[in-house]
Amino acid sequence: MPDLPHFIGGEFVAAGPTFANHDPLTGLRTGGVHEADAGTVDRAVEAARRAAPGWARTPAAERAGLLRRVADELERRFDDLVAAEVGDTGKPVSQARELDVPRGAANFRTFAELAANQPGQVFETVTAAGERALNYTLRKPLGVVAIIVPWNLPFLLATWKIAPALACGNTVIVKPSEETPSSVTLLAEIMRDVGLPDGVFNVVHGFGPGSAGQYLTEHPGVDAITFTGESRTGTAIMRSAARRVKPVSFELGGKNAGLVFADADLDQAVEGAVRSVFTNGGQVCLCTERLYVERPVFEEFAARLAERAAALPYARAGETDRKGVTMMPMISAGHRDKVLSYYELARSEGATTLAGGGVPEFGDERDGGYFVEPTVFTGLPPAARLNREEVFGPVCHIAPFDTEEEAVRLANDSEYGLAATVWTSNLDRAHRVGASLEAGIVWVNCWFLRDLRTPFGGVKLSGIGREGGEHSLAFYSEPTTVCVKL
Ligand code: NAD
User: Fold this and answer.
1) What is the CATH number of the domain that holds 178?
2) How does pLDDT run across 142-186, given as a tens digit for each residue?
3) Low-confidence ranges of the chain (pLDDT < 50)
4) Which of 251, 294, 438, 467 is labelled catalytic?
């Protein structure tokens, strides 16, 4: 397979040295990827700037029509996209088929619809002297938007930003994660095939600091930055954006709490916890890493969760029909080592291991892959590092609580505030706790149930701003108020 190129001004560009891409299931090299230097990023920004006025002038309905065709084409190339996503991440084929790729198409359809039907605001103003004026707002694109995304749900997260940015009339430069370059490169082919004008959609590959990510976010020709990734990286990007006061939208890390009340349907809560802790190998920003369980059901819940964790099947190459949670590998050797270092840290902090804690052995090619065991710890105080830092792996700590007030306090005792989950059959409690939790989204008796029209984002270290529905349109466009004296 040829080394993955950039996509600039409607052409694939094989510029710069290459770095290796690996299959996390086996650790084997699957191909190379070109790394953009500052000159290549300049080219991409120039192409996006050249295309910006024409795309901004294109009627919203016409842009929406093109984006609907992108969604159709995604469905036509469904299997290729699934293969690209699975090859880069080692995720189960069934998950890519049911979640990652369909969500890509849904992102394009949803934002095409919303942007084409976006209302403006009108105010009639009466002055003290009895004069009248009509104020109305026009929404305009920001210009060139840099989109920097992580590796955990590469296609879903990239299209979540690409679709509204394009629908609002911006041109974009996407930098996918160095770990997962394939699906966005395939999307470039799709953009070309549906006839998106040259330069409207561009892709550059590379790393963060001292590479494509940094060159892009520091580039004076970029008008706004939308980023999903670690909170620490958000800090670095915000620093470069500050110089030119560029708008930023940040979807960052989490240390999400799950609260299980004794009145919950325990079967549902255990299965919900299995999903929320272990889906995607725990590598979803929304995954639960801290579980608090009301004391009367704590022992039973902990035992059942540990039993389910220990019995989870592991992903294997080519498997297409697996249902339920399947343990996938960590994205890289480096990330596996980071997760294992947290397992070690938890033990050194005094944790009791209820399940996992090590590396599975397969006796096949997966022994070269980046797997870790799904793991459940207990026995640590709230101040332990395992309870405070985002691990981003298949692991949770489980602790008992006695009152609703204590549960809310424990859940909110975090620098992060992305998502929280509540398991209860008490309706009053569900609303009360839902309103008290410091999180961008609170799920009650469910997890990762998303409506793309709702605001999505985090509080505290988990982000700045909201995307989703009208909130995406608000970020990716700017209002101009026109005041006409009547
Ligand atoms: P990361 O921050 O290491 O990298 C994300 C992207 O930023 C990559 O493309 C990377 O190359 C680039 N990058 C890194 N340093 C950069 C710099 N200095 N300047 C410009 N670009 C830079 O994150 P990751 O390890 O890829 O992803 C995991 C993290 O993402 C976790 O913290 C997770 O919680 C978070 N995440 C958040 C959400 C959300 O919606 N809130 C969703 C998914 C993942």
Assistant:
1) 3.40.605.10
2) 999 999 999 999 999 999 999 999 999 999 999 999 999 999 999
3) none
4) 251
Domain limits for position 392? 257-444
Q: Which one-letter amino acid corresponds to residue 465? A: G
293 and 437 assigned to the same domain:
yes
Q: Quick check: is 456 in a domain? A: no
Which pLDDT value is given to residue 1? Answer: 66
**Domain shared by 247 and 389, yes or no:** no
Q: Which residue in the block uniquely carries the two structure tokens 């995406």? A: 472
Q: What CATH number is attached to the domain comprising 378?
A: 3.40.309.10
In this structure, are 46 and 106 located in the same domain? yes
| Residue 436 pLDDT | 98
For residues 142 and 113, is the Cβ–Cβ distance under 8 A?
Answer: no
Q: Does 33 contact ligand 1 (Cβ within 6 A)?
A: no
Same domain, 149 and 118: yes
Same domain assignment for residues 11 and 102: yes
Rounded to a whole number of angstroms, the CA Rg of the chain reads 23
User: How far apart are the CA of 376 and the centre of ligand 1, in A?
Assistant: 25
Is 113 considered catalytic here?
no
ipTM: 0.97
Q: How far is the CA of 94 from the centre of ligand 1 (A)?
A: 25
Decide whether any atom of ligand 1 lies within 6 Å of the 394 Cβ: no
Residue 201 sits in the same domain as residue 262: no
Dist. CA 155 → ligand 1 center (Å)? 14
Report the separation in Å between the CA atom of 214 and the middle of ligand 1, taken as the mean of its atom positions: 12
pLDDT of amino acid 319: 76
Q: Whose structure tokens read 């560009």? A: 13
Smallest Cα–Cα separation from 261: which of 426, 434, 437, 414? 426
With the most atoms of ligand 1 within 8 angstroms of its CB, the residue from 216, 238, 285 to mutate is 285
d(CA 85, CA 468): 23
What pLDDT does residue 27 have?
97
CA 143 to chain centre: 23
Distance 323 CA to ligand 1 centre (A): 29
Query: Does the CB atom of residue 294 touch ligand 1 within 6 A?
Result: no
Q: Is 253 in the pocket of ligand 1 (CB under 6 A)?
A: yes
The CA angle 157-160-165, to the nearest 5 degrees, is: 130
The response to whether residue 416 sits with its C-beta less than 6 Å from ligand 1 reads no
For the Cβ of 472 lying below 6 angstroms from any atom of ligand 1, the answer is no
CA 55 to chain centre: 27
Q: Does 450 map to a domain?
A: no
**Residue 424 within any structural domain of the chain:** yes
Question: Residues 84, 153: one domain?
Answer: yes
pLDDT of residue 447: 98
Domain count, the chain: 2
Q: Are residues 298 and 241 in the same domain?
A: no
In a domain, 181, yes or no: yes
